[in-house]
Amino acid sequence: MAGKLAAQGAGILLVTANVGSLFEDPENLQKTWLREFCQTVQAHRPLFVALHCQEVGGKNYEASMTHVDSFIKELLSSDALKDFSRARVYLDKNYQSQEQFTALGCCYFIHESLKNIQQFDFKAKKFRKVVGKEVCSDALPSAAMLEKEKFPQDYFPEVRHSVLCLLQSRFSHEALAFDLVNIHLFHDASNLVAWEKSPSVYSGTRQKALGFVMDRITDQRFERLPYFIFGDFNFRLDSKQVIESLCSTASVQTVRSADTNEVDKLIFRESDNDRKQLYSRNRGTSINDLLEFDRELSVFKERLHELDISFPPSYPYSEDSSQGKQYMNTRCPSWCDRILMSASARDLLVKPENEEKLITYDNIGPNVCMGDHKVQLTYLSN
């Protein structure tokens, strides 16, 4: 896509962001997030921006969903987007309908200089010209311009109402058409359960769910097109392998609950350990050391492709607005937030050797607090 759209002068910015933290602290985190996002747009100067959000309204959405409208208003009125004359914003905010609620949001911004952009109407099965700015947040299940699908309940029966699913949109420019898919997969509910075997039971659940997504977006209902899937995949490092590798000489202490006698925690102790973090930006385990245990995508290596990772894990960062680089101790750091693509989409990025190209894959706001997830971007241009 970079090769073909860029040939017409159209840089593309793909962004995925789990924004759950922002609505818990709108005065600090939300303002910082908006500033960093806008600076990124201004720095890259794309003509098409696709922003996929997860956990819209926050983790406690009943209390903080009211902050979403002001967030979108500030985004649309920002200086960074002032020359984007067309916008499509889809927000799944209706948490009172638990059978349908996903907490996903898709925001698409089109620069005034980019002509002939069309969006697909999934009901009419045809493309329509994109004109003006529209915000849809009340009836996503019936939105013609968006395909919505929740995972079957039996994929994760421990959760009564799963909020994890996908939203799919389709755009075309000149002779090129492509799909953009927003996704949120299941997390690790228990560190202890995740540690029990390799790969973990949670990894298996995510694999099944991602397979469901792949089958859904490549079925026979619509023409198959190149696609980009970006969102919070909740991919985790192989916990058992990480611990066995990093704590091979450690002693293990089992702590049980006084009430149930069930294992409450495991403590690994090494005599020469100075209590440093498993991974930090400046010391300890390197990115490449941890990438060895990032294996969940390998099952789909023939179907999904990713640019090389050279940035720190995107989760779980401290939600303290003064701690931009600090990880929380709740989980092992991992690359949850990813931008993946089909083989056909990857092929669209390939350009002749004599043509200059720019493809960026990185975190946004590496030195400031963006919430518990760092925002992930891919910028495609010539």
TrEMBL record:
Q: What is this protein called?
A: inositol-polyphosphate 5-phosphatase
Specify the domain of life of the species encoding this protein: Eukaryota
Task: Please name the source species.
Answer: Sinocyclocheilus grahami (Dianchi golden-line fish)
* One Gene Ontology term from the biological process aspect of the record: phosphatidylinositol dephosphorylation
Kindly name one Pfam family recorded for this protein. Exo_endo_phos2
Name the Gene Ontology molecular function terms of this record: inositol-polyphosphate 5-phosphatase activity
Report domain Inositol polyphosphate-related phosphatase positions: 8-381
User: InterPro entries from the xrefs?
Assistant: Endo/exonu/phosph_ase_sf, INPP5A, IPPc
EC?
A: 3.1.3.56
Q: Belongs to which family?
A: Belongs to the inositol 1,4,5-trisphosphate 5-phosphatase type I family.
Q: SMART domains, from UniProt?
A: IPPc
